């Protein structure tokens, strides 16, 4: 079967590898669509970050080269021994977190904070950028017939956005700022309005992404035209209640902290290629909160329902659809070089829509 494997920085290869079969406790999925994530771009441009290189991942026992792709949906074509919740023919999306189930975080139910945290499509075990993959049954969530496979591939990034809001101090009626209107940023804006935000400010420089943000109700601020922090403070009489950083860039991180009101919160959602410096006194002297959120937990069913009901319009973010063979030039390089791109979906099997 065809699969896209990471061999090193800027070294993705479409290769023929052995098609997997469903082992006990696992489900085999014929992959329909898979999204290219910002985390994938980090691995492509500056990895390895999550990808195990030189030594095996403690849970998957795999190391590079590994199949990428963790935002995906497809059809169940085989179930392994002991699988009883998922059936042949089920239309599913995948919550790709590997967890040990034994560390303190896992025992407390916070499996996304596992000491051995990994992701299907980043840490080994297969991935969505392939025609077929197998995953443990506990990763699999069925979708209603009203949801398309494209929508199913967007459940994972939408879950990241909604989880970051759940983990923050945000409450209905609050104001918020989102730094970066890429896929996660735009989904965060949607989730904020769904959660009762009175106003959301989007800080972005791409014309196309600014237009997306405006269309979903945000007030857009271009930091190349005005001082973003000063503008937010002026419009909110002192700062927003909560801000969300989704750029992975040092300067917006500091602005994200600076634009919140005294006692406000900055939520860091990005995965970082390097450690940025921040002004700690700005946090201390104004008693601000700076917190982080990783991935999601116990949230996929809610996100599936929000997308299926039309309340979460994640599919609006799709700007390009490509095939597996096009993934490097039309996918990763396109996202790296074209600010007009937001979410690119990759089709693994031409007969699936």
Produce a short descriptive summary.
The protein is α/β, with parallel strands linked by helices and 353 residues long. It contains eleven helices and 18 strands.
Descriptive labels:
353 residues; Quinone Oxidoreductase, Chain A, domain 1; alpha/beta; 7-stranded mixed beta sheet; 2 domains; Rossmann fold
What this model shows, in words?
It is a single chain. With 353 residues, this protein is of the alpha/beta class. It has two domains: 2-156 and 296-347, Quinone Oxidoreductase, Chain A, domain 1; 169-292, NAD(P)-binding Rossmann-like Domain (Rossmann fold). It has helices at residues 38-46, 104-107, 149-153, 155-167, 183-194, 207-215, 228-236, 250-258, 280-285, 300-308, 327-337; strands at 2-8, 11-16, 26-35, 66-67, 71-79, 91-94, 97-98, 118-119, 132-136, 140-142, 175-179, 199-203, 219-221, 240-245, 260-268, 289-292, 318-323, 343-347. The strands form four sheets. Strands 3, 5, 6, 9, 10, 17 and 18 form a seven-stranded mixed beta sheet that branches. The protein has a six-stranded parallel beta sheet with strand order 13-12-11-14-15-16, sandwiched between helices. Helix 6 (207-215) links the parallel strand 12 (199-203) and strand 13 (219-221). Helix 4 packs across helix 5 (183-194) and helix 4 crosses helix 10. The longest helix has 13 residues, at 155-167. The radius of gyration is 20 Å and the shape is globular. The two termini are 19 Å apart.
